[in-house]
Structure formats: structure tokens, C-alpha cells
């Protein structure tokens, strides 16, 4: 792999070849995607020539209260885009995801020019002119922050706060999947962070329907030994699935947290495990199979299945059984979290 300085030179050369650029996140962006996108936009604008434009875009929904608060508090300009909008840009930088994995608006027919990501590399990424994929890193924000540091871009508090918060959330404050590079950048950025803004983000007001979904999740949660499976039925935003998976993993005695829910005509799945050797990404890919898309890391993973006319209740039940089979727990007796043994 070329050195970082050569990667920046390659990036700048590609950037100067085209006029109208989109920095694109995955659908329903989380803080790491938001921070990495903002940092990349700052980097590109640092090298911008006359007439060049850089826009930050995302597909799906910016739903979680903390993510909305992050965008508001840092005064970030992010544009919701559809696939046709993406195709209209001259150049695309894809951050915190990769083409063709099903969680963003790019694929084989609409390849980005640049990919910056920390998830396991996929086949289609090899066709991208510039790709920097580091699965060992805990956050894409760390990679982008290294680019800014090596390019000599001054640390303005907004971009430092966005990148810091991206690293903080994706690594659980350096406790989950963080490398030495993540830790060093986290500590380096800390001196430039606006802590008042971080507090505003972390204490963002929650809407009433958040608690309605939480109540549904608590009453549907079923425990099978060290596994908890939660069917939240229909949700108002897809990213609440991952939020719940994080929460249920904190239940005493649980090593696997699996949450399934329906958003529009798609089933969303989020899996967390407390043991890296258990390989959450592999589990979700096997459970989803050819019905949808899936991916992730050893301790956290996600999947999506388009319903395409299938009965959502039957499909959620099938996934429930499939996860138990894959985890060797199909013979275990389930216990409702909030009720007596069933």
C-alpha cells in the first residue's frame, strides 16, 4: 500500500480532475460516518481550485436524536440524496462503507472514485481508483483525521469535535475494537474538542415514540442462555435497531444481542457480541444469505432484507429461528425478559 503522503497526492490529483464532488456516507449515517464525511469535505476544500464544489450527502434517514443533534450543534450542511442525485455528480468519495454492500447508494453501475472505510474489504472496492480500507481500525474518522493531520490542515474545533465524537462512538470510548492509531488520534483531537457541544449531542432530547419502541423491544425480548433476540416489529427509523442492540448487550450474562425490526418494506437486523472471536459479521451474512445484504466486524454487524412481498411476520420468525440454529441454541428454552419463563 502506498504511504500516506502518496495517498494524499493521489487523492488531490483525482480531486482536481473533476469539478463537482459528493462526499457520500452510508444510508442512515452514524457519528463515525458523519465525522468522516465532514473531515473529508474539509480536506478536499483545503485543496479546492476555482470552480470546484464539495457537497456532503447521505441516503436514508438521519434519524437518531444524537445524530441530528450532532449535525445541528456543529452546523453541518448535509444533503439527503437519492441515487439519481448521486449519479449527477462528477466525482464521489464514499466514506465508512463500500460499494455494492447494500447500505449505500453506490454499486457496480455507480462506482465511487474514492473509498475510505474501516470495515472488511469487499470485492467491488478493488475496482475503485483510490481505496483506503483498514479493517483493523476502530473508526473511519481516525483514517480521515490522519489525512488531515498529514496534509497540515489546521484543527478547527468543529471538525476536531466531529472526528473525535465519531471515534468515541464507534469504539465506545476506545473500549471496542480500538487500535493504537485510534487511541493516539482520540487523545490528539481531545485538546481541540468543544466539550460543551459533545455534551449537547450526548444529552439530546428523545421523542416520545423512542420510548414506545423501547417498550415494544423490552416486552418482545427473549433470552436463550447467553443470547437475547429482540423483535421490535415496525420502527420509525432504521438506526434505532443498532441502538437497541448496543443496549441489550449490556444485559448481565448476555454474549449475543440480536435485534430485528421492520422499516418501510425492509427488515433491518443488528447484532452485537461481547467476544471478538465470535465473529458477528460472519453470523449475520449466514443468517441473511441471498435474501439481502449483510456485513460488519467481529463484534458488531448489520443486515437488511427487502421484503419484496414476503410476509414480514413469517420472515422475522424465520430469522429468529435461523440465528438460534447458527448459534447452536435451537434446543434452548426461551425466557421472556420481562415475564416468567415461557
TrEMBL record:
It holds the Pfam family DHHA1. One of its GO terms (molecular function) is nucleic acid binding. InterPro entries: DDH_dom, DHH_sf, DHHA1_dom, Oligoribo/pAp-PDE_c-di-AMP_PDE. It comes from the Bacteria. SUPFAM superfamilies: DHH phosphoesterases. Residues 22-167 form the DDH domain. It comes from Ardenticatena maritima. This is Phosphoesterase. Residues 233-308 form the DHHA1 domain.
